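Saturday, quiet lab. Running sequence design on the structure tokens for the scaffold JK sent over.
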């Protein structure tokens, strides 16, 4: 495959490894081990694994490697390592590179489990500094020389604040720090994170990449050195690798990713505009009133597939959710089905009220993940539920 080919083409063809049978569909190698022709071959393979040589599925598998190569092609990185979940990717990328005494600077606007991983780092002697990720002045002050890494979500979960990847990366690189970006809300379709300065990009492939709410998965994309020399040793010895079956599901999800995500984003823009016009308090990067609208358009070229609503209270939010007839109440996102979540009592419930408030999460916040239903049907359901 050529990097000059359109991402939609690479999402279908990149990384394919065909067996001697010449199958058209990507093969599922549902095996944890591999046989060797001789004891000498086994010894040689453990000493140096070639590009199409495997020893154990926790270290690598042909199906997983196809998915990794395809993700690296889409993200514009040298390599990728597929993980058991999105949180395995976040944990692996950060834990593998730090030691006690290192400094990590992160945006405070993070998914609750990401904040938990940072808590673990701090527990083991890593200095963790949290700040307002949208404030470049705060990054300049906090990212001191010797900082090991900076970490942020390109679009924050759940209230959709957009981080300036290029601006933060410039600050981080001047101090010698690696830039680790959780890119879930942006998706590979709208991502230009590496071009904008990111060194490591992580995804929960459970979300848009699977696209059907079927399986867990994650991926770390970066340089070959980071992926194979830093992340892989940690992940393969601590058990963070993806199941070959799940990697096969993700491979099939990638073939329609571009079409699905663009359709979802188009629907999200229509719904956000209609709700905003009806007087609902809407947070959506595609709306001109969004504080980082210009940045979102420059960085992503789209408002994305996610919408946040700010209602008056927890009761108002619950009443709205309970009146929905088409939209499902769940805590996943990126699904073909539209999903509503109340972050304060689910995905971010372990955070203190003060921490939630700092991240812009109120008791009336609702997170909408727009799916593939017709936008008119979704809007009708939302309007009747909002009363």
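Result came back. Writing it out in full:
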């Amino acid at each position: 495959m050529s990097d000059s080919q359109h991402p939609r083409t690479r999402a279908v063809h990149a990384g394919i490894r065909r067996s001697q049978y010449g199958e058209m569909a990507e093969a599922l190698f549902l095996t944890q081990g591999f046989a060797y022709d001789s004891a000498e071959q086994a010894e040689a393979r453990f000493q140096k694994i070639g590009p199409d040589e495997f020893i154990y599925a926790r270290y690598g598998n042909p199906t997983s490697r196809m998915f990794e190569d395809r993700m690296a092609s889409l993200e514009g990185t040298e390599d990728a390592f597929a993980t058991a979940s999105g949180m395995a990717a976040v944990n692996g990328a950060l834990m593998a590179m730090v030691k006690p005494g290192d400094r990590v600077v992160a945006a405070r606007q993070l998914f609750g489990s990401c904040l938990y991983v940072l808590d673990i780092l701090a527990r083991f002697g890593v200095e963790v500094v949290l700040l307002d990720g949208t404030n470049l002045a705060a990054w300049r002050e906090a990212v001191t020389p010797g900082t090991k890494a900076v970490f942020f979500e390109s679009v924050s979960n759940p209230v959709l604040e957009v981080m300036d990847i290029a601006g933060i990366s410039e600050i981080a690189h001047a101090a010698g720090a690696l830039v680790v970006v959780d890119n879930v809300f942006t998706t590979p379709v709208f991502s230009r994170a590496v071009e904008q300065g990111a060194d490591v990009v992580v995804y929960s492939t459970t979300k848009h990449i699977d696209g059907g709410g079927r399986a867990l998965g994650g991926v770390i994309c970066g340089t070959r050195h980071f992926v194979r020399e830093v992340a892989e040793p940690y992940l393969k010895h601590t058990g963070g690798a993806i199941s070959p079956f799940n990697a096969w599901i993700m491979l099939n999800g990638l073939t329609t990713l571009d079409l699905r995500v663009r359709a979802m984003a188009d629907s999200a823009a229509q719904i956000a505009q209609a709700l905003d016009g009806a007087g609902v308090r809407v947070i959506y990067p595609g709306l001109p009133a969004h504080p980082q609208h210009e940045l979102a358009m420059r960085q992503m070229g789209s408002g994305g597939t996610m919408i946040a609503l700010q209602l008056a209270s927890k009761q108002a939010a619950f009443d709205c959710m309970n009146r929905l007839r088409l939209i499902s109440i769940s805590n996943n996102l990126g699904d073909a089905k539209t999903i509503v979540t109340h972050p304060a009592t689910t995905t971010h419930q372990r955070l203190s009220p003060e921490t939630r408030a700092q991240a812009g999460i109120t008791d009336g916040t609702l997170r909408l993940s727009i799916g593939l239903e017709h936008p008119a049907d979704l809007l009708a359901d939302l309007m009747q539920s909002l009363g």
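Notes for JK: Residues 215 and 246 are 6 Å apart (CA to CA). The radius of gyration is 21 Å. Ask whether to fix the surface positions before the next round.
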